[in-house]
Amino acid sequence: MKRTTSLPLLLVLLAGAAVAKLPAPSDEAKAKAAETAAKTAHSGKVDAYKLCLSMDKVAADYRTKAKVAGKEIKPAVETPPCADPGAFVYTPPASASAPAAAASAAPATASKG
Predict the structure, then answer these.
(1) pLDDT 10s digits, 51-78
(2) Which of 20, 29, 73, 85 is the most buried (most CB within 10 A)?
(3) Residue 52 falls within a domain, yes or no?
(4) Contact 60, 68 (CB under 8 A)
(5) Is residue 84, in this structure, part of any structural domain at all?
(6) Are 25 and 33 contacting, i.e. CB atoms less than 8 angstroms apart?
């Protein structure tokens, strides 16, 4: 009987340790996370482009076979052409401290009149 009550108690203690506060991420970690998010978004665009190309290929094959069979196919909806996302290029955003440093340096160089 003691064993069944000690297990939930142990789980509660371990859960408390797992919820402990973590330190704030460093600027380098934030930059790496932003780059990873940008890579993931670009990867999604590339996947969508490849899917679009494959769907166009299948549709063209279907239309060709239907034409040979003597059927007339009219698209219900005109679809836009596939948009190639291009190569991945990541430009990190300017840091917030750079404009503040430039703004604080400007009044120091002004002469008093």
Answers:
(1) 999 999 999 999 999 999 999 888 888 8
(2) 85
(3) yes
(4) no
(5) no
(6) yes
Cβ-defined contacts of 35-39 (< 8 Å, 24+): 35/90, 35/92, 38/88, 38/90, 39/88, 39/90
Q: Which residues contact 73 (CB under 8 A, 6 or more apart)?
A: 62, 63, 66, 67
Specify whether the CB–CB gap between 85 and 45 falls below 8 A: yes
Domain that holds residue 67: 46-73
Distance in angstroms between the alpha carbons of the first and the last residue of the chain? 87
Question: Where residue 113 falls among pLDDT bands split at 50, 70, 90?
Answer: very low
> Can you read off the two tokens belonging to residue 78?
């005109």
